[in-house]
Specification:
428 residues, Rossmann fold, 12 strands, 13% strand, globular, binds thiamine diphosphate, binds magnesium ion
């Protein structure tokens, strides 16, 4: 029997909750909240958002997610682990969320009055250091198989498997649809974002950009191909720009973002599913740290295509350092290294390309080749992709003799003030 008091309470919570002023704290402790209450909250929400994490993919819940989205019109944003949960061209797919997110996802997240997190640890990148969700009346529900993660950030915890939970949610929400305006906004933002991706894929005159390289690799890929990456500026760019068409088509290790994972990880992905083409994308820094599994790929006949972006150093860390006033200290390689010859020395085909047109040809040849190919492409580190309505809390020195650091510190303090305690959680 449905108890109408839940709906009444949800309406009160969503529409008339106390608006807090800065530094005021209200602690609401909820124990054993009945599932009915969660459902009532979803029905009452006007601007709900689902955040799909890696758990959606691990529990093979993508069809259940899609069914729920199609039935209710609730849009979806994806974490790094959850990318691929929705096909990029679904009108409810907002793409990447948080510090490495799309404008579409970050705009909807900022205004969301209900966030339903599914299979995500709600890590620092996903929440843009707790600045991603700014609605003062935000409700957060978190469906996670790990109780620790379900309870994080004061969420209304729904402990359970992502697929079973999403299927149950679809049954209980039968007949419910969010406001048409909310669904239409998501569809418009999805297509605006895709136009931005197309713009970056096309690039401008001059040396290739990393976004153009991603575009060429994506164009060359079949839906079931798998892109593999881990560290540097590439994971953030892939999170924003890679057009996913298969739930298993995107394999980026961003939990630790461990340099050197790329080639070794790609080998593992290929061994797990030899029927899929594996496209490893790796920076020169990561390559120089660990590319030795190329030798294993040759010895064992496990063929990979590796796209090695040479921007002469730790582009991501250099950019981060400069943005904090520290001049990119110690992040550039100042002596050229012949990385294609390096790949050949390990037994792979190794080619260097100077243009996107040549990259496209090399990608087609690599697909037809008898063994692993490493394609080296030089990119301009000064023409990166940038961020979209997001932030990441990287503390800046409080005391420095460098004026640029002092200026960065002032920016840091201003931005940090936007970090907020999520429903039951403290900041920090
Ligand atoms: C094992 C390990 N050491 C250090 C880091 C910190 N780190 C992250 S990205 C990066 C530089 C990566 O350089 P590259 O692969 O050339 O990529 P780019 O930043 O130029 O895109 C470093 C040092 C890390 N993620 N993993
Ligand atoms: Mg580099």
């Amino acid at each position: 029997m449905h108890d109408p008091r839940y709906d009444k309470l949800a309406k009160v919570l969503v529409e008339y909750s106390t608006r807090l002023k800065r530094n005021e704290t209200v602690l609401i402790e909820t124990f054993d909240v009945p599932d009915e209450m969660s459902i009532a909250l979803v029905r009452a929400a006007r601007r709900p958002l689902i955040v799909a994490g890696g758990g959606v993919i691990y529990s093979e819940a993508t069809a259940a997610l899609r069914a729920l989205v199609d039935a209710t019109g609730i849009p979806v944003a994806e974490t790094q682990g959850g990318k691929g949960a929705m096909p990029y061209d679904h009108p409810g797919a907002l793409g990447a969320l948080g510090a490495t997110g799309t404008r579409a996802a970050n705009v909807v997240a900022r205004e969301a009055d209900l966030v339903i997190a599914v299979g995500t640890r709600l890590g620092d990148f996903t929440t843009a250091s707790r600045t991603a969700f700014q609605d003062p009346g935000l409700r957060l529900a978190s469906l996670n198989v790990a109780s620790y993660d379900a309870h994080k950030l004061g969420a209304l915890a729904l402990v359970g498997d992502a697929r079973a939970g999403l299927e149950a949610l679809a049954v209980t929400l039968a007949g419910h649809r969010v406001d048409a305006a909310h669904t239409e906004l998501a569809a418009r933002l999805n297509s605006e974002w895709d136009a931005e991706v197309a713009r970056l894929y096309a690039g401008e005159a001059g040396p290739p950009t990393q976004a153009q390289v991603i575009g060429a690799v994506n164009d060359s890929a079949e839906p079931q191909d798998v892109v593999v990456c881990a560290a540097g500026s590439m994971p953030g760019d892939l999170h924003k720009l890679w057009r996913t068409r298969d739930p298993k088509g995107y394999h980026v290790e961003y939990g630790y973002s461990c340099m050197g994972y790329e080639v070794a990880g790609g080998l593992g992905v290929k061994m797990a599913d030899p029927g899929r083409e594996v496209l490893v994308m790796v920076g020169d820094g990561s390559w120089l740290m660990m590319s030795s599994e190329i030798a294993t790929s040759i010895q064992e006949g496990v063929r990979l295509t590796v796209v090695l972006v040479d921007n002469r150093g730790f582009g991501s860390i250099g950019g981060l350092s400069r943005s904090l006033g520290s001049e990119g200290f110690g992040t550039a390689y100042n002596r050229p290294v012949d990385l294609a010859a390096n790949a050949r020395s390990l037994g792979a085909h190794g080619v260097r390309v100077e243009s996107i047109a040549a990259l496209r040809v090399a990608l087609a040849e690599a697909r037809a080749a008898d063994r692993t190919t490493v394609i080296v492409v030089e990119c301009d580190p000064g023409r990166g992709v940038g961020t979209y309505e997001s932030w990441w809390d990287v503390p800046v020195a409080e005391v420095s003799t460098m004026p640029a650091v002092a200026a960065a510190r002032a920016d840091y303090e201003r931005e940090r003030a936007r970090e907020r305690a999520l429903p039951g959680g403290a900041r920090g």
